Amino acid sequence: MEKTYYPKAWLMVLPVVAIVSFSAIVPLMTVINYSVQDIFGPENRYFVGMEWFREILGDPEIRGAFQRQFLFSFAVLAIEIPLGIAIALCMPRKGPWVSVVLILLALPLLVPWNVVGTIWQMFARPDIGLLGIGINGLGIDYNFTGNSIDAWVTVLAMDVWHWTSLAVLLCYAGLQAIPDAYYQAARIDGASRWAVFRYIELPKMRGVLMIAILLRFMDSFKIFAEPFVLTGGGPGDSTTFLSQYLTTMAVGQFDLGPAAAFSIIYFLVILLVSYVFYQVINNLGKGVS
Amino acid sequence: MGWMAWTLPTAIFCSAVFAMLALMAVLEKVYPTVLRKGLLPIETTRGDRLFIGLLTSGFIHLFWLAATEELSLVWASAISALWLATLLRWG
Prior knowledge:
The complex is a heterodimer of chains A (289) and B (91). With 289 residues, chain A is mostly helical.
């Protein structure tokens, strides 16, 4: 199809460019400036070149945090996306139950991050929490404050509880947008349920799945409040993720230079992985739909 | 602008990035980009290739810093410039 070009379209984008310049580009440039200086005060700073980058890249604790962060984000994607698709496929397409299910699913998304952490902190406590007492009652020794694996499973379960709904709602919107003609054609051809999913629903959901994967990856890679409230990063540093390190560095220790260098590395990693995801998903389904 | 804590190297770096973006805008006006497939396994526009080139150049510098103690970062910049030029021409 021939593309239509509007010569004055750039005028329409100018307000967004102006807002983004002030809200994102100017702070980003400031962070770049800070990353090459040792900052003691507004008028008291010294150029140190790439020293902070070298220090951050060589820090074994930060490398460990990066590994944990990748593991956590990929675990989140591996659980939430298939679960989101499965729940969306089971949801009613028409009738009064649609609204009920949508409202129920939207509820976790309305809860603020730190409140989610607090809810799970109480819910999972082995002495008074329903989940903690329930698991221990089954004969499984569970204590998320003392055992790293338990802490990890709890943080992961909390994130799945909080954010799977987003994947469900996006997939549901994608499924609702598929015209009935596709299903009728599949019925005429005698396609199985799996074939309908594989060759109609999945390719048609590619766009929303891409949004779901990108949003969940970026968000889980930046996770801070929930694990901070739930476990405080412990036991040890087993659930200390990148944001917590960064906050401790920038706010706790007031090491603005190293924190700025850390932020740039963090930003570049998110940018790279998100771009790779975007390209892979965009190119995977080409020719199918 | 004092609050932004500018230094000469970062000013040169940011100016270079903005100059590249401005040049790309002018080039787009004069020679509109065409999707093509070259060295990269995906179809790209001129802007895509610049973005990929700049992003990978950032990582070349980070790997250089992580892997070398003594060698000057100028070598990483030279490799990045060569990589960026290759990508823009044949990517």
